[in-house]
Design the sequence.
């Protein structure tokens, strides 16, 4: 009897890749996809890496596929934008060994800057999409995806969402089946996408999608479940679970392949139900195509185009057609905050004091946009902080940006910040870039990158030196400073922002949550010296609270002795000393 195990959706995806015989996996960490690679690395048969960004990850997987082995890339939905250049072209070229892109969408914006729907990208790129509904399917769909990729000579996208990625389910473990490597044969007409070759391959892509549409009616990932035919649903992914929970008697056409759609299966199902609903999160991808087929359906006029769906939403809309919704518990909002001792808080406290605006980036430091720090003014995408500052300077002149800086983390700088800084130098910009080096990819759970000196597989390697990299670009003014040395940091910020040149400030202090960090000190209040001025409270450290009498209390279970509050106090009312 096969072993069964409870797995996260992301763990199940990794297991599916292992069982499918994948040999190469590349990714850039991004919630909700990160645990896929962290699980894959546990299988020594698979080479796994953190790439500098998603474009590189996709290209690594493409190279492995062309050489004849099964390969994959994993990323969140906005990472697909970064990888779209190679993705669109490899759709034309096709594959050698099976090639799968796992794209994790984020309905509800749990950890993202938009609710982009990867199915829309797949339609434009001419790439088929599979969408599992639970952990068991996540594993099996991965295996099916690699078989499909090789049979139809196409990359395949396996689309997940936050709910699937981070939900658990029972998975049946099977043995790894490793197909023989395909023999590489030089074929420029297939793999060299110059215009003359690409024209012919585009024709191939359209024929391939027609074939997939036709064959999809018989794919095991698509199935019709007939119950009461008065009401029918077409759905996929996690929304299928909501339909089964809220409307257990309804007939359901569960689509495992959501692009291209199996039109014959849809027509047959629609003909057998009296009233047809389409229940899909985000964009009306299925709905618009079904309407175009001349089938009457109910969809986004009833169900929102925004956010994550739920069984209760379906109950409310369907009314008598489904069991009544239970009263939802009202949970107090708990917005994210920087951790106690976070070096970003120290940096932002200085910028706030100096009334400096910051063009921000993607990472923990985005939290500098909210009270009480109120420093970050813009956040667009990975690497955009530097380019945004450059655009401001070119639009309004040097004087305008003298009270601005660009703020970017070390991992994000490795991702796309390097190109942005290079552009600033090349196009003779002026402005100050602050690289907040906390020695990790913090927001996604402490993954290594090219500047940390360690790979995903645990190998110790030479670390890219950010200081020397900036100097190699020809930037004269590059300075490193301890993030918690607020007096020196204040002096440097004043000096560098006043320059008529490109300057870089690298603030250095490791993330407080990194494994192995030891914090021997703790901060304690000295109430008799406290003047109740509140200076120590301004950075918003959650370890500090104000008591009824106006003096300060410090929660020693949260405090790690970073000393920021002590340095902000002018009256020696906080002491930083060794833990007992």
Sequence:
């Amino acid at each position: 009897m096969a072993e069964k195990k409870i797995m996260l959706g992301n763990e199940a995806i990794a297991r599916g890749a292992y069982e499918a015989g994948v040999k190469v996996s590349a990714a850039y960490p991004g919630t909700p996809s990160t645990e896929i690679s962290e699980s894959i690395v546990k299988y020594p048969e698979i080479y796994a890496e953190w790439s500098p960004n998603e474009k590189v990850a996709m290209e690594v997987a493409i190279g492995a596929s062309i050489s004849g082995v099964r390969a994959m890339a994993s990323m969140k939905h906005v990472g697909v934008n970064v990888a779209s250049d190679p993705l669109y072209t490899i759709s034309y070229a096709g594959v050698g060994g099976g090639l799968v892109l796992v794209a994790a969408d984020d309905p509800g914006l749990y950890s993202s800057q938009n609710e982009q729907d990867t199915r829309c990208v797949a339609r434009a790129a001419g790439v088929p999409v599979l969408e599992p509904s639970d952990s068991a399917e996540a594993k099996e769909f991965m295996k099916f995806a690699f078989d499909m990729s090789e049979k139809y000579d196409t990359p395949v996208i396996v689309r997940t969402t936050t709910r699937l990625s981070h939900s658990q389910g029972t998975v049946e473990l099977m043995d790894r089946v490793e197909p023989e490597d395909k023999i590489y044969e030089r074929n420029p007409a297939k793999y060299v996408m110059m215009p003359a070759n690409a024209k012919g391959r585009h024709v191939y892509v359209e024929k391939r999608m027609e074939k997939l549409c036709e064959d999809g009616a018989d794919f095991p990932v698509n199935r019709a479940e007939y119950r009461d035919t008065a009401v029918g649903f077409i759905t996929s992914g996690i929304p299928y679970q909501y339909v089964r929970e809220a409307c257990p008697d309804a007939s359901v056409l569960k689509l495992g392949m959501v692009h291209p759609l199996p039109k014959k299966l849809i027509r047959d199902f629609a003909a057998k139900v009296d009233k047809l609903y389409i229940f899909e999160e985000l964009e009306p991808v299925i709905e618009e195509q079904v309407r175009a087929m001349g089938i009457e359906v109910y969809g986004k006029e009833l169900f929102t185009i925004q956010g994550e769906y739920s069984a209760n939403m379906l109950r409310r809309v369907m009314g008598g057609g489904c069991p009544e919704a239970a009263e939802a518990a009202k949970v107090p909002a708990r917005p994210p905050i920087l951790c106690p001792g976070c070096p970003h808080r120290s940096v932002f406290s200085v910028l706030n004091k100096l009334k400096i605006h910051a063009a921000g980036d993607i990472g923990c430091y985005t939290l500098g946009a909210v009270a009480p720090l109120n420093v970050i003014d813009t956040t667009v995408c990975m690497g955009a902080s530097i380019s945004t500052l450059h655009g401001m300077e070119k639009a309004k002149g040097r004087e305008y940006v003298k009270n601005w800086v660009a703020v970017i983390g070390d991992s994000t700088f490795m991702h796309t910040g390097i190109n942005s800084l290079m552009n600033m130098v090349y196009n003779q910009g002026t402005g100050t870039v602050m690289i907040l080096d906390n020695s990790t990819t913090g927001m996604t759970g402490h993954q290594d990158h090219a500047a940390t000196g360690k790979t995903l597989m645990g190998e110790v390697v030479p670390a890219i030196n950010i200081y020397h990299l900036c100097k190699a670009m020809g930037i004269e003014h590059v300075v490193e400073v301890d993030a918690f040395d607020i007096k020196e940091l204040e002096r440097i910020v004043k000096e560098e922002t006043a320059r008529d040149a490109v300057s870089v400030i690298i603030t250095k202090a490791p993330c407080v949550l990194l494994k192995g960090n030891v914090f021997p000190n703790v901060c304690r209040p000295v109430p008799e010296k406290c003047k109740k001025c509140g200076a120590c409270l301004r950075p918003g450290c959650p370890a500090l609270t104000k008591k009824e009498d106006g003096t300060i209390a410090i929660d020693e279970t949260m405090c790690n002795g970073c000393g920021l509050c002590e340095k902000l106090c002018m009256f020696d009312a906080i002491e930083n000393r060794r833990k007992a």
Summary: The CA atoms of residues 105 and 161 lie 5 Å apart. The longest strand covers residues 228-235.
